[in-house]
Amino acid sequence: MSLLDTLGLSPKAVAERHAWIGGSDANTIMSGDEARILSLWRQKRGEEGPDDLSASLAVQMGSYTEPLNRAWYELQTGNLVHGHGKVAVHATIPYMRATLDGVVFDPLTDAAVAVFEAKHTGTYGPDADLFARYVPQLTHNCLCAGHDQAVLSVFRGNADWVMFEYALDADYAAALLEAEERFWACVRSGEPPVPLPPPPPPKPKGVREYDMTGSNAWAAQAGEYLDTLLAAERHAAAKAEIKRLVPDDASLCTGHGLTVKRDKRGALRFAVEGE
């Protein structure tokens, strides 16, 4: 048996994939790609075998580096990841299942706080596109596992790591549930699915955009900031010019209410006279 034979899902798990929709299937269903969706539909109906990924370097690399990915995430965040390989089934929709890369636990409370997803990708493309690619899977896995938070931990190439935190978006989750329900109905009926344009994916935590025009507190502080900005720039310019005027051999300069003293390291210290 080679090393590659030990990676990924077992042959039994692969054979059973036609009986339910998994997280990676959600990425396909929400892609809007007709060819991919029809291929998945035929696979679920048993009319087409699953894709042979044993010779896919990208897939095998992701499987091989997944343990390292979990360990690296734990090292960088202090959180713990348990439950690798656990199968989570939706509480009320039995055809929705997810084989989890893990569940994130808070080390202080020992509480499960998020679904964990590990990926290994190339270095191309912006982070926003990378995150958007896996939003369906993160949403699907959250719904199956009963969590409202997810973490996407990604190795980009061999020298970069990026982590996204995702809060379950109710509108997007509703759209995903509807799309998966329509897809599964087509699997059962034999009617080919008709892809619909996917909804815009939500953004990860920390990158959302807000219009603060209606906030009185924001308005007050923004005005204060703008009013003092010019004064701050003038202050910095005056300080730089005063430093230039201080003679090289001066230990102390005074005048017009200002004191400039050279300390033992040669740095100039400013003070208001009388303080």
List keywords for this structure.
41% helix; 2 domains; 275 residues; 10 strands; five-stranded mixed sheet; Lambda Exonuclease, Chain A; three-stranded antiparallel sheet; elongated; alpha+beta
Give me the CATH fold name of the largest domain: Lambda Exonuclease, Chain A
Helical run tally? 7
Distance between the termini: 80 Å
The chain-level mean pLDDT equals 87
Q: If strands are numbered along the chain, what order do they take across the biggest sheet?
A: 1-4-5-6-7
Low-confidence stretches: none
Give the tally of structural domains.
2
CATH class of the largest domain: Alpha Beta
Strand content: 15-25%
- What structural class do the secondary elements suggest? alpha+beta
Principal-axis shape equals: elongated
Largest sheet properties: 5 strands, mixed
Instruction: Assign a percent range to the helix content.
Output: 40-55%
| Radius of gyration over C-alpha positions, nearest whole angstrom | 28 Å
Number of strand segments: 10
CATH architectural type of the largest domain: Alpha-Beta Complex
Order of helices and strands: HHHHEEEEEHEEHHEEE
Walk me through what this model shows.
This protein is of the alpha+beta class and 275 residues long. It folds into 2 domains: 3-189, Lambda Exonuclease, Chain A, CATH 3.90.320; 216-272, no CATH class. 41% of the residues lie in helices and 19% in strands. It contains 7 helices and 10 strands. A 5-stranded mixed beta sheet has the order 1-4-5-6-7. A 3-stranded antiparallel beta sheet has the order 8-9-10, with no helix packed on it. A two-stranded antiparallel sheet has the order 2-3. Helix 2 (23-29) packs across helix 5 (127-145) and helix 5 packs across helix 6. The longest helix is centred in the last third of the chain and has 30 residues, at 216-245. The termini are far apart. The model has no long low-confidence stretch (mean pLDDT 87).
